[in-house]
C-alpha cells in the first residue's frame, strides 16, 4: 500500500513542479520584455514580476520538486531492486539535469531582480522548452523502462526539439512584425495629429 501512496504523491509533485517551472520561465520572458516599456511602467512591471517569480519559485515550484524527490525516494525504498535497472540510471541522470535546471532558474530569478540578467525574451522562450524535452524523456523511460524503443524515441525527441525551436522562431518573427505595424500605425497617428492630413 505504501508504494501506491508514494506513487500518487510522486505524480502530484511532478505536476506541481513542472507547472511551476513552465510558468516561472514564462514570467522571465515578460520580465525581460518589460525593459522595452517606458517609465514608470517598466519599473512597476519589473517589481511585480520579481514578486510573482519569488512566490512561484518558493511556494509552488520548489515544494513541488521536494515532494517529487521525496516520494521518488519512498518509491525506491519499497522496491530497492529497481536500483539495478539501467533505465532507472538513465532516468535519474535526466532528473539530475532537471534539478540543475530548477536551481539555474533560481539563479536567473536573482539576477533579474538585481537587473543583472541580459537575456532577451526570445532566449527565455528557448530556455522554457528544456523542461518539455526532459519531461518527455523521463516519462518515456518510466513507462517503457528497458523496452524503450530507442530508434523511434530518438526521432520523436529530435522532431519535438526541432518543432519547438521552429515555433519559437516563428512566434518571435510574428511578434516583431506586429510590433513594427503598431509602431508604424502610432507614427501615422502622430503625423496626422501634427499635420491634420
From TrEMBL:
GO biological process, one term: protoporphyrinogen IX biosynthetic process
Pathway annotation: Porphyrin-containing compound metabolism; protoporphyrin-IX biosynthesis; protoporphyrin-IX from protoporphyrinogen-IX: step 1/1
GO molecular function: metal ion binding; protoporphyrinogen oxidase activity
Transmembrane segments: 6-29, 56-76, 88-105, 126-146, 152-172
Enzyme class: oxidoreductase
EC number: 1.3.99.-
Cofactor binding comment, as recorded: Binds 1 heme b (iron(II)-protoporphyrin IX) group per subunit.
Membrane topology reported for the UniProt record: Multi-pass membrane protein
Catalytic activity: protoporphyrinogen IX + 3 A = protoporphyrin IX + 3 AH2
Cofactor(s), names only, from the UniProt record: heme b
InterPro entries: HemJ-like (IPR005265)
Residues annotated for heme binding in this entry: 10, 91
One Pfam family named in its UniProt record: UPF0093
UniProtKB keywords: Cell membrane, Heme, Iron, Membrane, Metal-binding, Oxidoreductase, Transmembrane, Transmembrane helix
GO CC entries: plasma membrane
Main location: membrane
Localisation per UniProt entry: Cell membrane
Keyword Iron: yes
NCBIfam families named in the record: protoporphyrinogen oxidase HemJ
Family: Belongs to the HemJ family.
Subunit-level organization: Homodimer.
PANTHER family named in the record: PROTOPORPHYRINOGEN IX OXIDASE, UPF0093 MEMBRANE PROTEIN SLR1790
Function description: Catalyzes the oxidation of protoporphyrinogen IX to protoporphyrin IX.
Stated name of the protein: Protoporphyrinogen IX oxidase
Native species: Gloeothece citriformis (strain PCC 7424) (Cyanothece sp. (strain PCC 7424))
Amino acid at each position: 500500500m505504501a508504494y501506491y501512496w508514494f506513487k500518487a504523491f510522486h505524480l502530484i509533485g511532478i505536476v506541481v513542479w513542472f507547472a511551476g517551472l513552465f510558468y516561472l520561465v514564462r514570467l522571465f520572458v515578460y520580465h525581460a520584455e518589460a525593459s522595452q516599456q517606458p517609465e514608470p511602467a517598466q519599473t512597476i512591471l519589473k517589481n511585480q514580476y520579481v514578486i510573482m517569480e519569488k512566490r512561484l519559485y518558493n511556494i509552488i515550484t520548489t515544494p513541488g520538486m521536494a515532494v517529487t524527490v521525496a516520494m521518488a525516494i519512498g518509491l525506491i525504498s519499497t522496491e530497492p531492486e529497481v536500483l539495478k535497472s539501467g533505465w532507472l540510471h538513465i532516468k535519474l541522470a535526466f532528473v539530475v539535469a532537471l534539478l540543475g535546471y530548477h536551481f539555474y532558474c533560481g539563479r536567473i530569478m536573482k539576477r533579474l531582480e538585481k537587473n543583472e540578467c541580459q537575456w532577451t525574451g526570445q532566449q527565455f522562450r528557448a530556455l522554457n522548452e528544456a523542461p518539455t524535452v526532459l519531461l518527455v524523456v523521463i516519462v518515456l523511460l518510466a513507462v517503457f523502462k528497458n523496452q524503450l524503443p530507442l530508434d523511434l524515441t530518438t526521432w520523436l525527441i529530435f522532431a519535438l526539439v526541432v518543432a519547438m525551436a521552429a515555433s519559437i522562431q516563428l512566434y518571435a518573427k510574428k511578434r516583431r512584425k506586429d510590433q513594427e505595424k503598431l509602431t508604424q500605425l502610432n507614427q501615422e497617428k502622430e503625423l496626422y495629429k501634427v499635420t491634420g492630413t
